[in-house]
Amino acid sequence: MKKPKIVILGAGYGGLMTAVRLQKLVGVNEADIVLVNKNDYHYETTWLHEASAGTLHHDRVRYDIRDVIDRNKVEFIQDTAIEVKIEEKKVITENNEINYDYLVVALGAEPETFGIKGLKEHAFSIVNVNAARQIREHIDYNFATYNTEEEKKEERLTFVVGGAGFTGIEFLGELTNRIPELCREYDVDYKKVRVICVEAAPMVLPGFDPELVNYAVAQLEKKGVEFMIGTAIKEATEDGIVVAKGEDEVQHIKANTVVWAAGVRGSSIIENSGFEAMRGRVKVEPDLRAPGHDNVFIVGDCSLIINEEINRPYPPTAQIAMQQGEVCARNLAALIRGKADLETFTPDIKGTVCSLGEDDAIGVAFGKKMYGGKASFMKKMVDNRALYMIGGPSLVLKKGKFNIL
Ligand code: FAD
Ligand code: NAD
Q: Taking the model in full, what pTM does it have?
């Protein structure tokens, strides 16, 4: 009998977890497993703010996919998916067409720009290794150029972060740690540097514990961040941004560096392929399949699941993507063995920890609030755990964070 072919798109947290769990559950004779990813490496999306600020080299945040998959069981194809032809059960990629019996879509997120003018052209987003490397280079370049120009341009030393969600705050923590180093390296007066965070909501980290948020704001303000709260970015231009507080107070801020960290949507491939979605995220069935498509699973940031307690979607996180990967692998194994009863996915939220640089953090974990060194230690443990879950102790030893004292 012909073996079923399982194709997994994306080797991020959701896709790679599905692959490494599936390779343990399924025998070589039971299925052909194909993993498709744009790059030959996996990157820790959750560490990209560090590479972007230049506090961690980009090679530290990535590793070779072939190092963690069992190549006897999983065929890895480096390629870029373009579209899923759902009816024809095939994926169109940049270089090929791949047929499947079962598909897992785990292509992650893209920046949500809400149609704001100029953002795509003039702002950076922390989305992958290439983007992180470019942001770091751009920051360095502006510092390096400042003193070479006769007419000093303040906008070279003005850094705007759009959004004070977790990504914006974590990036600010790293950036403000890096700036003193850059000032020393390029003989720039620290007092001339401006770091501005623009947040549309009335508070930083909307919805998070107010006491911890106050701590984070105070720590970042100490490191020089100016918060513009209740203020929305309305436009990005060649030389900065336009912001507005309410209807009238419109202001133009000159800045050479604008990092847009104000939300995400699921991969555009979801909508381009005709899946019914909200902001690129498919509201999946309890067993993680796409409604109406019994052979297609969707995990990670491309999926949407509702937190029944508050009747709102769970925020897309690596924590959920990895847990989904585990359930998705078990459900695939059940399906290929002809079982009809699939497992229901229920997120097990262990907490949220937000770094404020390498040495500080805030968080709630296992129901306990924490901040400072303790929270920072917890954050590194969470980062190391993600490595362990996919690549075991050897990956932790290779890529783990041990600067914990
Ligand atoms: P990803 O892990 O992003 O993986 C997607 C994969 O698909 C990538 O390998 C990509 O290269 C590949 N891909 C994309 N398009 C294509 C294509 N067309 N063809 C082939 N391959 C493709 N969550 C937490 O739980 N905790 C945190 O501390 C945390 N910190 C974060 C910090 C930052 C800076 C950011 C940006 C996010 C953070 N998140 C955190 C959110 C978390 O990173 C995401 O929810 C998680 O990465 C989603 O996993 P995923 O598998 O859906 O996508
Ligand atoms: P987010 O949606 O969580 O936050 C975006 C912020 O941008 C919001 O506070 C929003 O009010 C603000 N915003 C929106 N439009 C704006 C505008 N025009 N001008 C100014 N501000 C505007 O997005 P994120 O921070 O990118 O996070 C994406 C996902 O990744 C979330 O699910 C988050 O939980 C997760 N994440 C988790 C961690 C962590 O656990 N440590 C870290 C980073 C990201």
A: 0.98
